[in-house]
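Re-running Lipoprotein to confirm reproducibility after the cluster update. Everything else is unchanged from the original entry.
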Amino acid sequence: MDNATPGTRPDATPGGHAPDNMPRNSTDTHTPGTGGGRPETPSTGGGPETPGGGGPETPGGGGPETPGGGGGGGTGDGPGNGPGMPEQQPAVILEGPRIGQQPSGPMAPEREAAVTEALKAAKVPPVDQGRMLVQLKKSEYGAAVAEYIASGRFADTPGFKNPEGLLFQVKQKGMIPAVHQALEYAADLQSKGIKNIEFELKLPAQNLDLDVLVRTPDGRIEYGAQLKDVDSVAGIRSAVKKIAEKQLGGAGVDVKHALLDIRGLRGELTDREIQAVQRAADRSNASFELRFDDGSVTIFPTNATNP
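Result of re-run:
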């Protein structure tokens, strides 16, 4: 389907109900209330659509489509419930043109000085600065992450530069793709006027691990996203199971969204994976967007749309 400009809403869900995917504190004038269990996103602007096709977007619309905070997430039973059980509703699925994050190449040597200055300003210890620079020079996403660091765009964002925050993941081998994914996601939210963005909130006792989140002015978590980079279609089932149980499994977040960038083609997705994602969506009351090399599939909880 055609891409629409950020802020548009597609009439693409079953029953003709358009998922609302705009956070409530944006300038979008079409955001409805939270009732009805329809997909919607945080209260500050259109859901993430990263630059160059980065963040979640549904077919014909901008931003991640996440279920409304009102309805429950379903029973968590997979397709084919046993005798005497209610008939399983069909999966709520939208297909779209969105693709996974794209490499930018390693950090160029001429950017090292600017990145180093930004790391000093963030009070990163010299030994960690060196480790970060090494990884930025090696990673296929290093150039883009280096630009975000040098720009200072998220320097004051909660969860960015604290020792347990996103910035310090840059020094870890193999973590820069995940850092890039989170920065792109947050940048698109920010570009749509969304405020009160944060990174890296871990609440293991509540089964919540949010890579990017949005709070209301009074501190409530209005929107939370868990992001993953998956090596192949074969890794989908284990990834979504972990998300549903340990990362988006808890209460206390109005709208929950999972984004998985998968190395592979959409045609490789089988009914087995779709059923696994549907169960995860029902258990966590979250929408799951799978972005492949040639398009995307978004799966919602079975109660995500009005009849």
